[in-house]
Design goal:
The protein contains six helices and no strands. With 133 residues, it is an all-alpha fold.
């Protein structure tokens, strides 16, 4: 939304009621996150599964059999490339904001957490997303 309709936030044409993310966006710090509004642990787990896709920014994936040392090299090279001033400027020009990808280790940790979601929570989420099935 920020890149496609920047005037909506800037000119307050949109009233944001809740944020879907693990952290509040710096530009709307007074808007609660969905996780702030859930009180029980199962509800928080459910919300984390729902929010996870929005929390992974600019993912790039590799085959599962990629050796760990090679993955580490690729991750470091990718993050280093994003420090290049020309690349950052071009990205910002096209997207409307500076690149801020989720780090590989952080993404992997999040995916492990989501994979460890208890089956009862997954079943509850499926029922919510597919009522009547």
């Amino acid at each position: 939304m920020k890149s496609s309709k920047p005037d909506w936030l800037r000119d307050k044409k949109l009233n944001v009621l809740v944020q879907l993310g693990f952290e509040r966006h710096l530009e709307i710090p007074n808007v609660p996150s969905a996780l702030d509004l859930v009180s029980d642990e199962a509800g928080k787990q459910l919300m984390r599964v729902l929010v996870a896709p929005q929390s992974i920014n600019r993912p790039y994936l590799a085959p599962p059999d990629l050796p760990g040392d090679r993955a580490k090299e690729i991750r470091a090279a990718f993050m280093a490339a994003l420090q290049d001033k020309e690349l950052k400027a071009e990205f910002t020009k096209i997207v409307g904001e500076e690149p801020a990808p989720t780090g590989g280790e952080e993404m992997q940790k999040l995916l492990r957490e989501i994979d460890a979601t208890p089956p009862a929570v997954v079943a509850r989420l499926k029922a919510m997303l597919n009522p009547g099935k």
